[in-house]
Amino acid sequence: MTTGYLALVLHAHLPFIRHPEYPEFLEERWLFEAITECYVPLIRVFQGLYRDGVPFRVTLSLSPPLISMLGDPLLQERYLKYLGRLLELAEKECRRTSGHADFNQLARMYRERLQEVWDTYANMYQGDLLGAFRDIYRGGGLELITCCATHGYLPLIRTPEARRAQVHVGTDVFERVFGHKPPGMWLPECAYLPGVDKLLHGCGIGYFLVDTHGLLYARPRPRYGVYAPLTLESGVAVFGRDPESSRQVWDRHTGYPGDYFYREFYRDIGYELDENYLRPYLGPDGIRVDTGFKYYRITGPGGEKQPYLPDRARERAGDHAANFIYSRTAQASLAAPGMDRPPLMVSPYDAELFGHWWYEGPMWLDFLCRRLHHDQQAISLITPSQYLEQYPADGPVDLPMSSWGDGGYNEVWLNPSNDWVYRHLHRAESAMVALADLNPGAEGLMLRGLSQAGRELLLAQSSDWTFIMRTGTAVEYARRRVNQHLARFNLLAEMLSRRELDEAPLARMEQLSPIFPHLNYSIFSSHFQVAGTYSGNSCPVLMLAWEYPPKTVGGLARAVHDLSVALARLGDEVHVLTCPAPGVSSYRLVEGVHVHAVPEEGLNAEDFLAWVGQLNQGMITLADQIISRGTKIKVVHAHDWLVGEAAREISHRHGLPVVATIHATEHGRNGGIFNSLQHLIHGREEELTGLAGKVICCSRHMAREVRQLFNQPADKIRVIPNGVDLAALGPGAGVRNDYAPGEKPVIVFLGRLVPEKGVQVLLRALTTVAEAYPGVSLVVAGRGPYEEHLRQLAGELGVSGRVDFAGFVNDDGRNELLARANVAVFPSLYEPFGIVALEAMGAGAPVIVSDTGGLRDVVEHGLDGYRAPPGRDDLLARYIIEILDQPELAREMSRRAWQKVLTCYNWSYIAAETCGVYLEVIK
Amino acid sequence: MLLNELRVPQYYNENVLIMLVQKPDAVFAYWELSGHQWNALRNKDGLYLRLYSCQAENGPDLVEVLEEVKLPVNCKNWYFNGLAPVLEYYTELGWKTTDNLFMPILRSDPVVTPPNRPDVKSLQGGKPAIKTIVLSEPGGRVTLPVATVLESMVCYMGIKVV
């Protein structure tokens, strides 16, 4: 009868170290030592269990760098040479120790062990240890999982794209070698950051592990502590490390590996015997190294050591296995009565502990599996996947950031010994994302260059380097590796951005770091996932919008138009239902979009709300007609509350899911709800968000507003910005070179003249700017009910002569204005999105915006414009003067702004992302 | 070209200000200013770094200046310690006008510090959680609170970083 389960999870990882440019390389020995002392001994343990009919369940994580090195012909060849030399040394040691019975017995033991390693590695598997792991996996006892591409420490990787690349590339490497997706992932350093689970989910990964506190600090607090897994919103499960079993094995003072009869790691003949005798077996340039020939046991805390006694050590390993089972049984019997399922104890360990650091580790594991099978029934081995199959996890929970490093968070990988790397790593991440975004579908040399840039970035991200810098051994090597990979990346990035790639250094880099031959650089693109989600799926959509060009009152018409056209270009069938416009037929096919107008005669009510009712009724009738003609509509996309009624009814009649875009809220527009009409509209907005399967907002600000106002769960809301059509910005769009303000700098404002656009703040700022730039002028382009007030204010402030109220401007007028603006200012007090600011950025004008609403998402302060606190004319004036004073700085900001518009606000990506939301609600 | 001899540059000539979480009570900020930005700062009296906190739930509207540091010359990064866990923070790098008005030139994205203890307000399923862990010590079994065990654990490859 099983009281509890034990999941042993071993993580095998070493950084990718391969130096073909040297005949031998000291740090390549890390792999060779691990193969000899850990991987082959573990393989032999598993083979022995199969041979003797002992069932077992162990989970082994093989990291992608390790997989890559184990499969690398050069390293295989070098390992065989290394092993050959060790066998030679073993012969010499048997002769040398012939006069000392204890040592001679040990020398012969080592010779026998090394011969076994040779048999397994060279004879049985011809150097292919991955084949050995595959065989053991096929036997059913071993669950194989993997890790991130280069063991990148995810909480300190800045861009989601680079984190995704770590997860995807890791999964891909595993799948290519083992023929199936990994069921779980060992997160590098067990380090979790909220959102990582979604990346795992995207790769079909079912679970991961965190340290004890990572799980215990989940919200809500887990009722079974670490004795049961939890699920996250994404559906991915998380397991927590059992602290007691960890301590028994890990702790160097009270843990098993510190037993006085176990082998002493730090007494190696490599440091003790004559240099001439050892020379062929030492490192390059005769550096003294571990040879693996260690003749002493730990003995005690002092420096005096006694010879190692293999039989006593073996007995102790057996005792420790028994003790481990006893402890687990005690734990399980205490925990089980309070649970509705058998408690699970998850014991994750670094695989290299077994055999390398703890020489008797593989033996202990062997005893453990055998005793669990033969001696008792209370504790059964299980893999995380099997436990999840039998006992579905509780959830969903919110899981906080954590790691298994000292202190439990990021301190090991971020401290004064290694913090300098992040400036360079983060810059390379951003550069890689931009390169991938700007070069979709690259071929030939560009493809090779982009992919190698991705490899160099991944290699630089390995958590091993920052870890080594912290612990203080081999620091110089770690620093050199980070420098090399990032400098190679920078060289490639610079050539790629000029589109002048020199093949010679590229080919050399490919040769030096031939990891991930199948890496596709597009994994770094900010649009990667979207494209993947979208491909091959079509979602005919009914788009409900009260305004649509040529009828254009606010920004909604243009946004719906651009989205619809972009969706149609992606191959979707888009039917827009909208108001009639004078001189336009009731049905048109424009730019691939079917536009259906509600008949004019049905819209005759004078009362606003009655008119809205008629509009919605008309839309319902149109939808009935479209669907009755056999069009297979799959989703209804409603824009703002005005069409909410139609969305509800169409959804109800035809069983269709609804996606709603909330462009702005009544509450936000008015700064609150003050009258009965506003109250009613607010209610309609609430209904629409409640009805929709997913709600799209154009900025993080709007998403928060919608979540708070209408009490909607965060997961229901997607932030997808509006896009900018760069072509519509005319030939002047792009980076300009003429920011020198000269005698008469021009400030431009574009927008409706309503109080919330904040022109009054700009007028007050103008008085200060004029003191520094007497020739300055302001063009206010736009119309609105507030115009007269603004004219009056300009007069009162004494700036009437500087302000040109230009009225409504069409696209050409706008482009012309932006082309001669020294700075474009958008001082809004409320702004859900701020498309005009983006257009100004796309046109190459330096921008200053209010630090509010959607403008916050658009402009990064000091990078691609300035953000002034709303209403603060003093600060606004200073930023305007700063832009006018510093034309070079303004140019730098404009260049970044333009690149952002080009890559982040492209309608085709936005349409694909929107379609991804459609697919979610259709599911 | 000797690819192994390549090194990262000291500067990239870009404006950037990034903040990272180090642990529940500490954050780290690093920055770089472009040449043009340095030109713009030529006549200013030094750089200041400000740390703000804001209620994560309410977004950056309810903000508080927690610390202001006048940065030493050539300083490129800063650690802020002694912070509260589960709170949103961001930093601004800027200069001061003669009338002591702080003018931010760069602002970091916000970060949220993680918790350093179990959440006291929520409990899954409303049942009491397992609060203690049984340890098999040489002298017999002892039961200890989870927090005690965690604090005494030696993590990561048996290496306790000091």
Secondary structure: elements and pairs:
The complex is a heterodimer of chains A (923) and B (162).
Chain A: E1 4-12, H1 29-51, E2 58-62, H2 64-70, H3 73-96, H4 101-124, H5 129-138, E3 142-147, H6 160-178, E4 184-186, H7 196-202, E5 207-210, H8 212-216, E6 230-232, E7 237-240, H9 243-250, H10 275-278, H11 310-335, E8 344-350, H12 361-374, E9 379-381, H13 384-390, E10 394-397, H14 421-438, H15 444-461, H16 463-471, H17 475-498, H18 503-512, H19 528-534, E11 541-544, H20 555-569, E12 574-578, E13 587-590, E14 593-597, H21 608-628, E15 635-639, H22 644-654, E16 658-662, H23 666-670, H24 676-691, E17 694-697, H25 700-710, E18 717-719, E19 746-750, H26 759-772, E20 777-781, H27 787-797, E21 803-807, H28 811-820, E22 823-826, H29 835-842, E23 847-850, H30 855-858, E24 866-868, H31 873-885, H32 887-904, H33 907-922
Parallel strand pairs in A: 1-2, 1-8, 1-9, 2-3, 3-4, 4-5, 5-7, 6-10, 11-12, 11-15, 12-14, 15-16, 16-17, 17-18, 19-20, 19-22, 20-21, 22-23, 23-24
Antiparallel strand pairs in A: 6-7, 13-14
Helix pairs in contact in A: 1-4, 1-5, 1-12, 3-4, 6-7, 11-12, 14-15, 14-17, 15-17, 15-18, 16-17, 19-33, 20-33, 21-22, 22-24, 26-27, 26-31, 29-32
Chain B: E1 16-23, E2 26-32, H1 35-40, E3 48-54, E4 63-70, E5 77-80, E6 88-96, E7 102-107, E8 111-112, E9 132-137, E10 140-145, H2 146-152
Antiparallel strand pairs in B: 1-2, 2-5, 3-4, 3-6, 6-7, 6-8, 9-10
Distinctive features:
heterodimer, A: 923 residues, alpha/beta, ten-stranded mixed β-sheet, elongated, B: 162 residues, mainly beta, Immunoglobulin-like, five-stranded antiparallel β-sheet, 2 helices, 10 strands, disordered C terminus
Quaternary structure state of the chains depicted: heterodimer
Percentage beta strand of chain A: 5-15%
How many separate helices of chain A? 33
Radius of gyration of chain B: 22 Å
Distance N terminus to C terminus of chain A?
41 Å
Structural class of chain B: mainly beta
Count of all domains of chain B? 2
Q: Based on Cα principal axes, name the global outline of chain A.
A: elongated
What structural category arises from helix and sheet content of chain A? Answer: alpha/beta
* Estimated share of beta-strand residues of chain B: 35-45%
